Amino acid sequence: MTSILINTINMQTLWITAEEALALLGTKPQTLYANVSRGRIRAKPDPADPRRSLYQLVDVKRMAERHSGRRQAKEVAAEAIRWGDPVLPTGISAITNQRLFYRGQDVVVLAEQHTLEQVAGILWNIDDGGIKIPAGGENGGPRVAAALVALASRVMTDLPALGRHPAALRSEAADVLATVASALVPSSQVLPLHERLAHGWQRPEAAEPIRKALVLAAEHELNVSAFAARVTASSGAALSAATLSGLATLTGPRHGGAWMSVTALVEKAATIGAREAIRSTLSSLGLVRAFGHGHRLYPDGDPRAKAIMESFEAPAIYAELAKVGEDLLGEPINIDFALAALADSFRLPDDAPLVIFALARTVGWLAHAMEQVESGQMIRPRARYDGIVA
Fold it and tell me: Where are the alpha helices (DSSP H) in 235-258?
């Protein structure tokens, strides 16, 4: 019955009414509202009637499939790694009520004044505040490639993380961050990292927006790069190895490279207009987040994106794309959109969004790596074989 109902709904619809959601779920309204409050189903006000709500179709479908019958344990486990229920305990960050917290502190509030170095102190549980990053590095060559090489050169000589005192790990984490910073932000001066970036790019006026972006992008729960870092750390490998895993994962177009689709959309919009650019680009539901709109964990809008966009005046085309995109897709902009707008606004290098993201997220990867090591657990899920049986 559920599959028949799903087929009657236009699959290009991103948001459905409560009546449609209840028909798919086959439950009482109270159950629908409970799933919304627990973050399992995203909801937003109906633009046509703010007294009513609309519900994200993909979330409702997932819950309908979950409750269509008692699923086997293997099915539950498989779903857990695809935006499913939480699978790992952490004291690093939390996303609740569409807000992001670093060890209990609202990241938007932290971004008002904190630097990335101070946030590292918070995420790494350093009592005496932040850390200091020495000057270093040489100019020339792609920055992210240089960071990958620099980390790889440490992996076989750094000590394994397993069995070492937390204080020693934190000291090494600062050194690993310095290695990444020297590759991404080479400087002969000892400056806060946001100032090093602005100075290196010869855009001193961009220092404050960059500072905010670094803080807001430093950590985001169990995203794919953080998970990769934790898996590596769980083997006992060096912190540099865990960071290398995170950085390699970040380079994927569905993670750290998502901003590139935003810049491509901007170029297209400059030629044919924002509305037509989005219409012609949108060919499936899966493309919604590929050009900077929507986030599963923030149905009402990514608070990180909002905070970044408020720190500078973006070109008019970005404001138009943000509005038209939300009108057409029902999804506000996300952090990928904001980083692309930041880079364009201050005429930063083409890879600036990835450099900012990589430098910031290194702090989060190291926090996850150290927490995983201290847990003493190895991450080793089982695979469900679905190949040919002889």
Answer: 239-250
Domains of the chain: 2-70 (1.10.1660), 97-390 (1.10.580.10)
How far apart are alpha carbons 45 and 5 in whole angstroms?
23
Q: How far is CA 223 from CA 142, 204, 249, 296, 364, in A?
A: 25, 31, 10, 12, 10
For β-strands 105-106 and 49-56, DSSP reports them as unpaired
**Under-50 pLDDT residues of the chain:** 1-12, 70, 284-286, 288
Q: What is the pLDDT of residue 329?
A: 80
Q: Token pair of 180, please?
A: 């990444």
Say which residues have a Cβ less than 8 Å from residue 33's Cβ, sequence separation at least 6: none
| Three-class SS state of 125 | coil
Which one of the listed residues 158, 302, 336, 344 is annotated catalytic? 336
Tell me if 171 sits within 8 A of 370, measured CB to CB: no
336: annotated active-site residue:
yes
pTM over 0.85: no
Q: Which helix (H) or strand (E) holds 55?
A: strand 49-56
66-113 pLDDT, tens digit per residue, is 765 545 555 555 565 666 666 788 999 999 888 999 999 999 999 999
Q: Which of 295, 344, 351, 368 is catalytic?
A: 295
Question: What's the rounded Cα separation, in Å, for the pair 211 and 240?
Answer: 24
Instruction: Answer for the pair 125, 168: CB distance below 8 angstroms, yes or no.
Output: no
Q: State the Cα–Cα distance between residues 219 and 235, nearest whole angstrom.
A: 22
Does residue 154 contact residue 199 with C-beta atoms inside 8 Å? no
DSSP string computed for 269-293:
HHHH-HHHHHHHH--SGGGGGGGTB
CB neighbourhood size of 376 (10 A)? 10
Active site residue 59: no
Burial of 208 (0-12, 13-18, 19+ CB in 10 A): middle
CB 180 within 8 A of CB 359: yes
